[in-house]
Amino acid sequence: MTLSGTSLIGFGRASENKDFFFASSPATGAELEPRFNSATSAEVDKAVTLAAQAFPIYSYVSPAARADFLKLTATKIETAQDQLIERANLESALPLPRLRGEIARTCGQLRLFAQVVEEGSWTSPRIDHADPSRKPLPKPDVRSMLRPLGPVVVFGASNFPFAFSVAGGDTASALAVGNPVIVKAHPAHPGTSELVALAIQESVVESGFPEGVFSLLFDSGIRVGAELVQHKLVKAAAFTGSLIAGRALFNLAVNRPEPIPFYGELSSTNPLFVLPRALANFTEKIAGDLFGSFTLGAGQFCTKPGLVFLNEGQSAEQFAAFLQNKVQAATPFTLLTKGIGGAYRKELKARLGKPGLHKLAQGTPGNEGLLTCVSAAVFQTDVSSLLQNVDLAEEHFGPSTLLIAYKQKQEVLDCARNLHGQLTATVHATPEDLQEYAELIPILETKVGRIVFNAYPTGVEVCHAMVHGGPYPATTDSRTTSVGTLAINRFARPLCYQDCPHSALPPELQEDNPLGVWRLVDGEFTKRKA
Amino acid sequence: MTLSGTSLIGFGRASENKDFFFASSPATGAELEPRFNSATSAEVDKAVTLAAQAFPIYSYVSPAARADFLKLTATKIETAQDQLIERANLESALPLPRLRGEIARTCGQLRLFAQVVEEGSWTSPRIDHADPSRKPLPKPDVRSMLRPLGPVVVFGASNFPFAFSVAGGDTASALAVGNPVIVKAHPAHPGTSELVALAIQESVVESGFPEGVFSLLFDSGIRVGAELVQHKLVKAAAFTGSLIAGRALFNLAVNRPEPIPFYGELSSTNPLFVLPRALANFTEKIAGDLFGSFTLGAGQFCTKPGLVFLNEGQSAEQFAAFLQNKVQAATPFTLLTKGIGGAYRKELKARLGKPGLHKLAQGTPGNEGLLTCVSAAVFQTDVSSLLQNVDLAEEHFGPSTLLIAYKQKQEVLDCARNLHGQLTATVHATPEDLQEYAELIPILETKVGRIVFNAYPTGVEVCHAMVHGGPYPATTDSRTTSVGTLAINRFARPLCYQDCPHSALPPELQEDNPLGVWRLVDGEFTKRKA
User: Fold this and answer.
1) What is the number of domains present in chain A?
2) Chain B residues touching residue A251 (CB < 8 angstroms)
3) A416 contacts in B (CB within 8 Å)?
4) Are A456 and A483 in contact (CB under 8 A)?
């Protein structure tokens, strides 16, 4: 497949224009061919209009056909994977095994959503039978199930060129429900985006679906994204990225004449609590694994542990010393973009001037002339500095973390209570630790989407029970998740039929349950005929 | 019980102050004793602070204890019902049988949510077991379930002094989940609100729960409501009322530093489509029942059918003539408040000047000196006038409706496509009509929360399958419902535990399923042990 650098508008292509950009190699700083043309406002409108035209057709496609479409897309991505990995490596500098794993994850996600759609119970059918003899008024027959929302906009993320981008979890879940999707490609990996989009486009064609089911739009700036979330035919949007960009888009989405759901996954520091006995028993093991976790993907995971609480004492000192050595010995890391590299460096410098904060160690300096080339760092502060300046607990995207030594249990509980919303919190603890710190878990339960025990938050399992979400600013909507099968519910709403003639009911709500799904019939969960 | 006219802040009372108001009798216009004191800003803060302090306790109360609390509240309301009905009748002029029915509905709702909480499957527990041998990485143990959000603000509605007010569906569902609730009383029925609040307060005391679980605040204006939705410790809000007030509160909620879910049920015209054969076969029956429906509760139901589509011809003329007679013969109606009465009269006048719109009939004039005393009205327009001025399809709260005669099927489909979001749409149709108008239903499915067949949208059944919701401006969040058991999900978010020691897991997620709830275990719905 050859890259054209133009947006995919349904089955067609946008034209080249004066507003274009290039991807750049994070490893060398060099521009990468070809040039990518930003979609014009008319092209944005055309993509959304096609999506709205496709909706009345695609939203009634059978679950089996939607599932086949998702599986076909996975197969096409796998078929193209050598070219995909090569281009993604150029654009992201992420290592080949990681990219190969991410493609496997992406295709696994598509197939998992296909399975959920085929099984069908996610639509939550509910049936309450009529009771004509009820007094004082007869009871009507009432049935409801989840239905798609309409055209959905997905923003590709910089840090996962496959799993949170063009055919990532947001796209897979929105398509699974029956919503057309318009993806705004992340400008850091437009070539990868185009290649994945071509696979989806082919699947739409081969499935016989209308062209508006999928479009991909390029833009190096914010215009296209802003136009998309404000377009009156767009019914929801999903975004993974920075707090500033995400909040700006959220504001546009909720301040529209007709507000729409905006699922933003924005910012998380993912505190890790190493409780006393765990710290004493596994000092170096935890420190070593923590190093692996906060530098994984060059520290560019949403779930990177960026805040580590340790109780003061000899073990904490050993822990810090061990981490210090690991960091000092670390070779430089290549970040995804000049923007991320610049922000990481800026915060490294800024931290040197913050009261109560000091740098424990920094890794081998890299090529200073290359913004993307940075060294790992570990900082340390104390409870009172953190409580006086909660900004210290804000996300620092890249391979750095911050240790906080506390004296008494009450101090760490105070810190936990003062945290902003987080995707995750992690607790390293022995059973005795958990007993002693029993108050900690209920506090964390109000702060995060996921609590991890004696492990690390990076590596988000794609499964039914996963919650990759959490209170603001971790996400703009804590009622949901962007990873795992529960993510499908984001793009659906319940629709109710009262006294509907049987022939007009969707299969999920028909008396004899032809699809064999789980339903709530007169208050009882059952797969039986109603 | 004697009315004190002061807000209930936890177990205490607010003091009297200079900012007070009186309820007024819609039937006579007279002020009703006692005076009600608006809560001060400090009292708003105290109520929310108490709620936030109660949250860590109340959110861990057992499902059985929460269910008992809801049932106790229902019993207390029933015990007080004579006094409640007497006061509500004074404040709302709603007839006694209606109020008695509404109390039954309110207590039924409390008991239904108690049942849902006791049964426990609403928490949607999900368990994915570990697989330590999985390659390339071991699979962790991941479990998740729904947990409460935190303090919830509920705005009492004017049109249902019980079922959508202090102990109405919003309060019942928020309390059922484990969230403390602060109710802003509707100023039209403060005495009714105080009496119901006293019943809840007693239940909180007798249940041994902390006082912050419930507070009731008075205010004749918008200050207290605005302070509540902006308070940083408030985590969600629910509102039933006007588009202008609801959108203003929604804007405050989503533009906070930490945005919160705001469930506003705002405005709906509830189109009713009488298709040709149904119109010809049941002309007078449908016209008569429609009259009953659009004047029920003096036309002050959110689901009042305010827009009626008929195909031109003899049957439509008969239909209109029949309705004309019914309306002309109708005695005056008493609306809930001077504000509602004034707005109804203003729109009656405004409609006389709108091009393409004419008044078919108006009922017996009432006491012109009493703003709340109004007469029913039926208007008529045509398709092109409606398409040129969609404002005609906006909600007109009170006993009025609008007939639209169309010539061809395509015209009514165009009208349907141009409708704003609605709570309901109603279709009167024979099987042949449904075949001929097959395109209509899919259009309505994108516009509404509930489609009613051969019946009327007023009368919203409280059951599992009900959806009282719909696209904006029907509600601010179409992904949910404010009536029926699904409403409980509005006040919860998923929380995930990874590799959690078994002793630290909530009962819903423990291996042996001690509560016997339905769970999704490794992708299978089951009540068995995991």
Assistant:
1) 2
2) 255
3) none
4) no
Query: Is ipTM strictly over 0.90?
Result: yes
Q: Are B335 and B341 in contact (CB under 8 A)?
A: yes
Q: Which residues of chain A have pLDDT under 70?
A: none
Least confident of B26-40, B154-168, B359-373: B359-373
Let me know if residue B497 belongs to a domain. no
A265 has catalytic annotation? yes
What pLDDT is recorded for position A269?
A: 97
Mean pLDDT of chain B: 97
From A107, A302, A373, A415, the catalytic residue: A302
Alpha carbons A325 and A331: distance in angstroms, whole number? 12
**Contact check, Cβ <8 Å, A451/B56:** no
Instruction: Supply the pLDDT for residue A393.
Output: 85
Q: Do A464 and B126 touch (CB under 8 A)?
A: yes
Shared domain for B185 and B48, answered yes or no, is yes
Of A25, A43, A387, whose CA–CA distance to A191 is shortest?
A25
Inside any domain, residue A23: no
Chain A closest CA to B355's CA: distance in Å?
26
Q: What is the CATH number of the domain that holds A108?
A: 3.40.605.10
For residues B305 and B411, state if they share a domain: yes
What amino acid positions of B are annotated as catalytic residues? 265, 302
Asked if residue A233 and residue A276 are part of one domain, the reply reads: no
Q: Give the minimum alpha-carbon distance from A498 to chain B in angstroms, rounded to a whole number.
A: 5
Question: What's the gap in Å between the CA of A386 and the closest CA on chain B?
Answer: 20
Using omega within 30 degrees of 0 as the cis cutoff, is the peptide bond preceding B471 cis? no
Is 90 exceeded by the pLDDT of residue B432? Answer: yes
Which residues does residue A139 pair with via DSSP β-bridges, in sequence order? A131
Q: Are residues B276 and B262 in the same domain?
A: no
What is the structure's pLDDT at B391?
Answer: 83
Is the domain of B394 the same as that of B318?
A: yes
Q: From the candidates A91, A211, A265, A395, give the one annotated as an active-site residue.
A: A265
Per the structure block, which two tokens stand in for A367?
């090529």
Q: Nearest CA of chain B to the CA of A319: how many Å? A: 23
A137 occurs within a structural domain: no
| Predicted confidence (pLDDT) at residue B161 exceeds the cutoff of 90 | yes
Q: pLDDT tens across B172-204, in order? A: 999 999 999 999 999 999 999 999 999 999 999
| Residue B194 and residue B5 in contact, taking contact as beta carbons nearer than 8 Å | yes
Task: Please report the pLDDT score of residue A365 as a whole number.
Answer: 86
The kind and range of the H/E element at B431 are helix B431-436
CB contact under 8 A, A137 and B459: yes
| A404 membership: H or E segment, kind and range | strand A400-406
Q: In this complex, which of B465, B477, B494 lies closest to A142 when CB atoms are compared?
A: B465
Do A58 and A169 lie in a common domain?
A: yes
- Best of A58, A479, A509 to disrupt the B interface by mutation (most B CBs within 10 Å)? A479
Using CB atoms within 10 A of its CB, is residue A485 exposed (0-12), middle (13-18) or buried (19+)? buried
Interchain proximity B498–A448, CB inside 8 Å: no
Residue range B483-518, pLDDT digits in tens:
999 999 999 999 999 999 999 999 999 999 999 999
B259 lies in the same domain as B276: no
Q: Are residues A354 and A367 in the same domain?
A: yes
Does the structure show a pLDDT above 90 at B152?
yes
Count CB pairs under 8 A between chains A and B: 203
**Contact residues on chain A for B497, CB-CB shorter than 8 A:** 450-451, 453
Model-level pTM greater than 0.90?
yes
Q: Average pLDDT, stretch B114-141?
A: 97
Beta strands per DSSP E along B151-285: 152-155, 181-184, 214-217, 236-240, 262-265, 271-274
Closest by CA position to A151, among listed A58, A264, A217: A58
Check residue A530 and give its pLDDT: 81
pLDDT at B422 over 90: yes
B322: containing domain: 271-453
Nearest CA in chain A to B490: A479
Q: Which residue of A has its CA nearest to B256?
A: A251
